[in-house]
Amino acid sequence: MVARQAHNLEVARSNPASATNLNDKVPADGTFFISSGSELGHNSDKIVEPVGGSSGFSPTKKMPIGDFLSGAALVGYTLPQLHTGKSWYVDFFAWDPVSERMKRKKYMLDRCKTAGERRTMAALLITSITNRLLKGWNPFVSSDSTRHLTSFDDILKKYRDYISSMEAKGTLKPKTAYDYLSRVGTLETYISECHVRISFAYQFDRGFVVDFLDYLIMDKDVSATTRNNYRTWLSTVGTWLVDRKYISRNPVEEVHQLREKEKKREPLSAAALARMREYLNKNNRHFLLACMMEYYTFIRPDELRHLRIGDISVANREVTVPADVAKNHKERHVGLNTKVLLLMSELRTFDSPSHYYLFSDNLKPGTEMVYLNRFRYEWKKMRQALRWPESYQFYSLKDSGIRDLANAEGVVVARDQAGHSDIAVTNRYLKKDRAVPESVKDFEGVL
Predict the structure, then answer these.
(1) Are residues 158 and 184 in the same domain?
(2) Domain closes at, from 373, 393, 413
(3) 183 Cα distance to chain centroid
(4) Residues 225 and 285 in one domain
(5) How many whole angstroms separate alpha carbon 288 and alpha carbon 161?
(6) What is the maximum alpha-carbon separation in the chain?
(7) How far apart are CA 89 and CA 119, in angstroms?
(8) Same domain (yes/no): 156, 126
(9) Looking at 19-125, which runs of residues are DSSP E strands?
(10) 3-state SS assignment for residue 33
(11) Is 266 domain-assigned?
(12) pLDDT confidence of 281, banded at 50, 70, 90?
């Protein structure tokens, strides 16, 4: 895989000697040779001392590069010099971090008519350029692009800190923050495994993004859906980088989504629901409670694990999903079916303090929230025991509940219980029967 690497500007700040590379023009012992004299050079091949012949430098005096280039210097450079001959000009070299080499900057003096005018202009230029170089100026690094050269490792660290901070403030849900940080880890694994040499922010470009997504598809064999989810996440990272001026534009916007297959999740049939109830009644009644909560309340699995005993009102037969738990950050109230309350009573759920989580260790009430994928883990065990297809998933209970409530009480009631903003959202859960209705076959039309 072809990757680019730019010179690390931060190293240049702290260790100018290591940042300066004059392409073998600097001796091995790390010194500059600085010529002196009161006269400016007379031909283009002669290296001439900058204006100020009384500088005190001898023609052959060596100065260690570490002393000469102070910590204020932004990158390596050579001092400006006047060249005379057919054309008069002042030039110098400075490190270009994009091309990874010393690059020449040249100022022509031919517009000045006389030799005197040219020498005067050269003196002004050399003095001005030297002062600016000593203060850290680099002609190839504009103020707008300085952040583009921030270390990519530092950026990932700052991004991690940002996500953790947003989670602590409640702006990001713990599951979302966990997913984002997990994807950062996957990105770092890709960089390490494939020896991708990405050093600076500006190298987060379209080529890097496409190569990473291809790595997921071809090397990690993920689905198109997972690849697209990573692409969506990378887009949020790109926006985060643009907002902080690490890059000028978001390269992920140029990367297309892959076509996905229809989701394989299917609602459970009535027979499957009855079989599940029978199996869990014998083997795991606390997980049966979780399944019934999902089926009757439509509360999302991640919201379910955050519920506390105090969020349940027996008198009103409802559950309150707090704003800091809800996906849309809005508090909502959902009805609690009598069958669910009866099971809670049998399990002595309300004997626990109100601050206990409804589901903790062993899916019983407790002080610690049940871990992220526990519902999915228990569901997989049951599915294997019942020899169900993979299309039957824990979230299928919500699909099944919305379907059954809509059929019994109408789609509007199902919409409100699910907390959907529009019936169109609810309709997505109501997959139509693939069988052709018999009434269609005997329909008496006008034609």
Answers:
(1) yes
(2) 393
(3) 7
(4) no
(5) 39
(6) 111
(7) 10
(8) no
(9) 31-33, 62-64, 81-83, 89-96, 101-108
(10) strand
(11) no
(12) very high
What are phi and psi for residue 382, nearest 5 degrees?
Answer: -65, -40
What pLDDT band is residue 412 in, cutting at 50, 70 and 90? confident
CATH assignment at residue 196: 1.10.150
Q: What is the Cα–Cα distance from 125 to 113, expressed in whole angstroms? A: 17
Q: Is residue 161 part of a domain?
A: yes
pLDDT tens readout for residues 295-322: 999 898 888 999 999 999 999 999 999 9
128/226 same-domain check: no
Report yes or no on 436 lying in a domain. Answer: no
Q: Mean pLDDT, to the nearest integer, of 159-169?
A: 94
Domain that holds residue 387: 275-393
Q: Which residue has the tokens 């955050």?
A: 306
Q: Are residues 199 and 280 in the same domain?
A: no
Domain edge (last residue) among 375, 393, 411: 393
Q: What CA–CA distance (Å, rounded) separates 85 from 43?
A: 5
Answer yes or no: do 250 and 280 share one domain: no
Model pLDDT, residue 358 = 96
Q: Read off the pLDDT of residues 48-86 as tens digits, 9 standing for 90 and up.
A: 333 333 333 333 344 343 443 333 334 478 999 999 988
Are residues 285 and 247 part of one domain?
A: no
| CA atoms of 34 and 195, how far apart (whole Å) | 41
66 alpha-carbon distance from chain centroid: 39
Which of these ranges, 145-149, 246-250, 278-282, has the smallest mean pLDDT? 145-149
CA-wise closest residue to 171 among 329, 304, 332 = 329
Alpha carbons 399 and 321: distance in angstroms, whole number: 19
Q: Taking a C-beta distance cutoff of 8 angstroms, is the pair 176, 163 a contact? A: no
CB atoms within 10 A of CB 235: 16
Please state the length of the chain.
447
Side-chain half-sphere CA neighbours of 292 within 13 A: 21
Q: How far apart are CA 356 and CA 365, in angstroms?
A: 6
User: For the chain, how many structural domains are there in total?
Assistant: 3
Same domain for 21 and 110?
yes
> Is 400 contained in some domain?
no
Q: Token pair of 365, please? A: 């009430």
User: β-strand 101-108 against 89-96: which pairing, if any?
Assistant: antiparallel
Mean pLDDT value of segment 146-174: 90
Q: How many helices (H) and strands (E) does the chain have?
A: 17, 8
